[in-house]
Amino acid sequence: MAFNIIVLAKQVPDTRNVGKDAMKADGTVNRAALAAIFNPEDLNALEQALRIKEQFPGTKITMLTMGPGRAADILREGLFRGADDGVLLTDRAFAGADTLATSYALSMAAKKIGSYDIIISGRQAIDGDTAQVGPQIAEKLNIPQITYAEDIEKIENGKVRVKRRLEHGVEIVECPLPAVITVNGSAAPCRPRNAKLLQKYKHAKTITERQVEHIDYIDIYSSRPYLNLTEWSVADVNADPVQCGLSGSPTKVKKIENVVFQAKESKRLTDNDAEIDELMRELIENHTIG
Ligand SMILES: Cc1cc2nc3c(=O)[nH]c(=O)nc-3n(C[C@H](O)[C@H](O)[C@H](O)COP(=O)(O)OP(=O)(O)OC[C@H]3O[C@@H](n4cnc5c(N)ncnc54)[C@H](O)[C@@H]3O)c2cc1C
What we know:
The chain has helices at 40-55, 72-81, 99-113, 133-141, 195-201, 207-212, 218-223, 273-285, and strands at 4-8, 11-13, 36-38, 60-66, 85-89, 118-122, 145-156, 159-166, 169-176, 179-183, 205-206, 228-232. The model has no long low-confidence stretch (mean pLDDT 91). The protein has a single domain, classed as Rossmann fold (3-Layer(aba) Sandwich). The strands form 2 sheets. A 10-stranded mixed β-sheet has the order 9-8-7-10-6-1-4-5-12-11, sandwiched between helices. It has a two-stranded antiparallel ribbon with strand order 2-3. The chain is globular, with a radius of gyration of 21 Å. The protein starts with a strand and ends in a 5-residue tail after the last helix. Helix 2 packs across helix 5 (195-201) and helix 3 packs across helix 4 (133-141). It has 8 helices and 12 strands. By secondary structure, the chain is α/β, with parallel strands linked by helices. The structure holds flavin-adenine dinucleotide. The site of flavin-adenine dinucleotide has 30 residues, from helix 1, strand 4, helix 3, strand 6 and helix 4. Flavin-adenine dinucleotide binds at residues 8-10, 29, 39, 41-42, 65-67, 97-99, 102, 106, 121-122, 124-125, 127-134, 251, 253, 256.
């Protein structure tokens, strides 16, 4: 028994170092101004996929990411750790997408990939922080979903059993395949890069990267097809451009501000009701909660 697994991975701005030019005037992220990293929980998702591949030889892991050209780095990172293939969904028409438009585009790419038994994503991306994309993709593909996964325990008789980490404990659930599973940061960390795979895939490139970098040693790309990273546009995945990017996004990010708490702003509270009430009123007034 072998499985086809799609691992969703997002290239995210390193929000640990957000500067004042992090956002453009239209409320979208100024990605050029921020270091780009592999979304942390997507590494946990990749590790779960790699464990299934160890257990079921012949299993194929395809990395899938939607983003600008440099998001191909995410695909290479997945290959260096044990994935088998990578697809970059990139097109100006995808830019500025909210979760609805993002999940639509990714679901169209999953349909184009065709056979998938499990689609594994991180629970949440550290920039948008909505945790909506995984569940939305399951809806669009009309397949079951298991979220907040901490461990994919077993796959048997066409069903997957998963341990979920919830606020107040764990839960073991099961569902039929194909399914979408979103993985928590409390799951096992991802294994590091494998030196042999790094050697094997260091020249893996998308066609655009090869053109931009004037890489012409055509030979190795024809003799080693695994070095060709797939690159798909809106048209390649038969997506409706109106449902993509800003035009497909009902959510408009109105304003983003960088909230950095200064020590002087902290204050010590007792468990006195009046003080707690005062704190709650303050947090509601400054939109930190509610
Ligand atoms: C500060 C900020 C606030 C935002 N607020 C909202 C909002 O309130 N509502 C809204 O609809 N949009 C919002 N967006 C836009 C949103 O970030 C994008 O739509 C994004 O592509 C998906 O949402 P997310 O980052 O919340 O991902 P999440 O839903 O948190 O991501 C969950 C998982 O889905 C997968 N995934 C997500 N995006 C991709 C991708 N591009 N490629 C591959 N896999 C992916 C990853 O595995 C990820 O771990 C916001 C963006 C920013 C920067």
